Structures
1.
Amino acid sequence: MNKLTFGEQIVTCKTGDTVLDTLLNNNLTIPNSCRQGACQSCLMRCLNTKPPAASQIGLKDVLQEQKYFLACICYPEQDMTISLGPQANLFTPATVISKEILNPETILITIACEQPLDYYAGQFVNLRRADGLTRSYSIANSRKHAEKMTFHVRRLAGGQFSQWVHQELSVGDSIEVSDPQGLCFYLPNRQEQNLLLIGTGSGLAPLAGIIHEALEQGHSGEIHLFHGSREMDGLYWIDEMHELQKNHPNFHYTPCVSRGDTPEGVARGRANEVAMSTLAKLKDWRVYLCGHPEMVNQAKIHAFLNGASSKDIHADAFHVASASLD
Amino acid sequence: MSEEKSSTATLYERIGGEAAVNAAVELFYRKVISDYRINRFFSNSNMDAQIAKQKAFFTMAFGGPNNYTGTDMRNAHARFVTMGLDDSHFDAVMEHLGATLQELNVPANLISEAAAIAESVRNDVLGK
Ligand SMILES: Cc1cc2nc3c(=O)[nH]c(=O)nc-3n(C[C@H](O)[C@H](O)[C@H](O)COP(=O)(O)OP(=O)(O)OC[C@H]3O[C@@H](n4cnc5c(N)ncnc54)[C@H](O)[C@@H]3O)c2cc1C
Ligand code: HEM
């Protein structure tokens, strides 16, 4: 018999009962459907120990790493503290320590957190300013500098948070940072796997973090980055990426623009389309997609049809919060 | 001895259990979303969730452990019936099921068994 702590409730799980049975028997509402580990409706997360391996079969490796499990096939081996979906959001104070222009619409900010945060390269955090306005931004550095985090913030016309970051936020100012979140991150398993990374606009931020992390960890597979924007103005770090390519023979960089003139070395077309026509066979590849939601969605399906397994496709769509959510 | 084993093992076990389902599901889903006759029923907004559901489809088609009843099948597909789901779409899915299993070199007799199980829920899926 093991105890299950679920929010405020503590219930006892009888030997031979699953977590799902136990919660349902206690009249707790948990989404579920097939009850055999297939449909993943009853996905839950363990907040203390590692869940039994058998309850994680079929989940993406990033979900397994974050202690997600399927309640319907989970027979607890010890007491578990569990939740549905992400944990309650905790914020840590931080200070802006530098601000740098990347291109006319994108700014790089670096913050130092009071406590180093534990994150994986590619994850995002929620940044909260004093009046409570909160937006998600991807961590752009690898895990080497965990007390410092960098972000690439693209200014949207009329965008409340991004305009404020561009125009008002200054070095020395305070800002709050949530726990790192999201499943689009690099794990140093299967280092021989080829990686395809496609980003639009500030979608380069998490991808740059992932690439640096992979290279620092000695990733041996080929690493292909396609960074796209409508016009040349929307690209950045072109020289830095070329430099990285020079120093790492397994890293390949293709900047792409879909409109206007393309200088030599820049591909003409949308980043996802250029990538998919260059790399038509993605069987056994690992894919990371970040940026414009429509690009992310199209590229996901395209990568899958080109042979990538859905378990190996990781994506963060930069959905813009709706005005009504503020 | 071995004969007795094969006659008592379920189709799901004989086909290869969960490993077979995992192998089949992505091949199958690629065929489904590339097929203009039926891909409109498969919304492309959440691919992972859709693939997970197709795992349930295969577990069922292989006669594996599942808790779905005829009513569940009706409910799960009711909104597609209102979108026009009919026998022609069902036949297309059956085609992809067969082709997927052939690609995985599943023996013909086991493919027929799986097809028969899927066929048995036709009326429920089509809301008849
Ligand atoms: C997982 C994730 C990661 C992200 N990572 C990054 C990142 O690394 N870098 C980055 O730059 N962004 C990132 N984003 C996007 C970011 O979170 C913000 O959505 C973005 O910066 C816009 O916020 P804002 O407050 O400036 O705009 P908002 O004020 O939310 O406005 C968004 C847009 O809507 C328009 N708008 C607002 N109100 C109205 C209205 N009433 N009527 C019509 N239009 C309106 C605005 O003009 C603007 O163009 C990420 C998003 C997610 C979900
Ligand atoms: C051949 C017999 C069929 C079987 C055994 C079957 C079985 C299933 C099962 C078990 C699920 C998961 C239900 C859930 O847990 O929510 C499902 C979902 C689904 N089925 Fe079928 N199905 C069949 C035919 C079809 C056909 C012909 C179509 C359309 C062409 C179809 C489209 C779908 C879709 C789109 C979903 C996902 C629903 C969602 O996203 O919620 N199915 N099916």
2.
Amino acid sequence: MKFQSQKIAYWFFAAAMLLLVLQIVYGFIMGFARIGMDGLHDWIPFNTARATHTNLLVFWLLLGFMGSAYFIIPEEADRELMWPKLAWIQLGSFLLVGVVALIGYHVNWWEGRKFLEIPRPLDYLVVVNVLAFLANIGLTVWNGKRYTTTSIVLYFGLLAAALLYLPGMIDFDNQTLDSFYRWWVVHLWVEGVWELIMGALLCYLLIKLTGVDRELVEKWLYIIVGLTFLSGILGTGHHYYYIGAPRYWLMVGGIFSALEPLAFLGMAIYALAMAKKGGRRHPNKAALNWTLGSAIMSFVGAGFLGFAHTLPQVNLWTHGSLVTAMHGHLAFWGAYAMIVLAMVAYVLPIMTGRKLWDNAAAGFAFWLSNIGMVGMTGALAVAGITQVNLERRMGLDFLAVQKEIEVHFIGMLLAASLFLVGIVCFLWNFWRFGLPSDEAVNSDVRAAERDLSRIESTPAAS
Amino acid sequence: MLSKYQARAFFLGGTAVFAGIFLVLTFDTHRQIPKQTNADQITPQVAAGKKIWEANNCMGCHTLFGEGAYYAPELTKVVERRGKDWIKVFIKDPEAMFPGQRKMVKYDFTDEQIDQIIAFLDWCGKVDLNGFPAEPPLKKLMQPAADTASNAGGELPPAVAATIPLPAMFEQKSCTGCHRILGKGMPGVMLPNAVTGEVVPAPALDLVFQRKTREELIAWISDPQKIKPGSPMPNLVPALVSPQEVEQMVDFLLGLKAHAPAN
Ligand code: HEM
Ligand code: HEM
Ligand SMILES: [Fe+2]
């Protein structure tokens, strides 16, 4: 860590970790409701738990992205953040708006549109907040001593994410149009501009952790995000098959969304190839695990499991079933949760000057959370496929089928407990690192970093 | 091998081209949607229904057009499936109708609001969704099983059944949503008992006169939960069916005895 203002990232990450825990709590509330233990129904009905669960997810991921940007941008631009104080205000107000929204969901104040439940007045506050964030990092890049591909891709990913939030705020009386533009936010985020953010973070981490030549890493970053947009923009059509939009979307969405896994496959191959090529390994093994893990799990969750139900012939049966929830979990986990955790694992030793990167807790955190998440995905897959066959193909009643698949949610809850243990290990380490310190600049950690950057500045030995 | 400059050109060029195509298709979609969705039928009542749908986050449990949550049934075709009267009663007190089952929030909607929600769902049900939700293709194969299930009750021969007009109230009051009567309605819907978990068929009612007396039938329809706690048969009286209508129904069902083939 070269610059004082980078320290703000710690607090973004800390807030994100807190919200992650809350997200999991609400996940358990829903899981228990599904096996008939719905004692909280009168206070936290399922729709409240669900909106809270998914919004907390988006919320902590955004905090993670912002924290990462506040850490990376000054470093890449080689200067202090433009307005460090503004970053603090932005963090505080972002949390405040989020908490008000979450409380609102518990008193029936929301805008019931999946993933965009935040009530309209708060939407405007989010916009102002994000503008402050973008101005702050934007001017830091602009006034920086150097412009790097990584920082520019990261910046434009964040900017585009903010712009794409706006179509979700248009009002329509027609449910079809409402849904049409809701996907401009939801799909074009996770299968478009967020991939830009993920790609940039991945690229940054690979440069730092493997010591491979920056030029090479950044060139491939362009190819991968190029593939993302090439397939992902028209791939939006896979949400337009059955909502009352013209029939040609079946063709357009089917073909282009089927190509989307290529970008994720590219990301996985790219990460593994760079790690191999780098040869020399950074001592922070935990961060490297999370980085490579994210590249691989995003391919499995988003690429492979997304492809599994993206063709219109398949989606006709799986659309709006637990198969979707199965894919949603592993995709969000692999692509976005893991890349944020990778950033956290990378940044903490640098900020605090402590080398807690290769201990048992770090290993348990990585393996248990991943095994748990794969188990949850498996349970949802079995539940989802059974639901599709009994309800959609054999025509049995919805609730009768739900009774049949209840048992899989017991399995899901067991896997979720394993997942939770992994997350608790991660948080325990987070806690042990302590607060960011000024001495960290001269620590062994910095020395290790300097070692690697020397390699980085010479062309990669291949 | 590609240079970084070429890689960037690939990214920028590809993005521009495909974003352009996407915008053109969006424009065309806007042109076509009014017709495909019957936008001219979005009355103020339908629009108001959509507002209520959103203000209460119904999508947080249900799906509509296949979008939403997977905790409660898909509602696109619900008006066609259940009928307006049934929905009206159900929304007022979901638990009364399905005691012991997965819970739905009990809202204090006015009658006017409920009509608005139903108008909205009715409009949704008529949008051309390119074939979603599809007719279950294996239902036909399940037919023998379903027939056996409804035959738990037994049916009049189709030739006889076809000659007897079924009073409209059996369909209006949602009986045929679960039972088969005179060849009409769902064949043997299987539903779980909320207490025992046992899955039971809703029997066909043609031959119910063989199994139950007038008093038993009236007692059963008036309060199934009292007789068999947890039964999937909802409490429809008096909210949806008046005691008078119960008597009319029972009289009709017992009257079918006259049509039974002598043996
Ligand atoms: C990291 C990337 C991804 C994430 C986080 C993600 C997440 C999600 C989520 C949360 C949903 C449910 C959305 C809703 O109903 O509101 C969804 C739906 C869907 N996703 Fe993804 N996804 C990703 C990538 C992909 C890819 C690459 C594909 C295809 C190859 C894909 C195919 C689908 C399809 C077809 C649906 C619609 C399911 C339905 O009809 O119910 N996804 N995704
Ligand atoms: C202990 C852990 C968790 C449990 C028990 C859990 C459970 C659930 C349940 C029951 C649902 C609702 C499905 C429905 O509509 O019926 C849900 C939705 C969702 N959860 Fe989780 N969850 C957990 C952790 C996570 C994590 C860590 C992530 C992300 C990385 C996540 C992402 C999502 C998403 C994206 C949805 C919406 C899916 C869709 O609409 O298709 N969950 N979760
Ligand atoms: Fe998508």
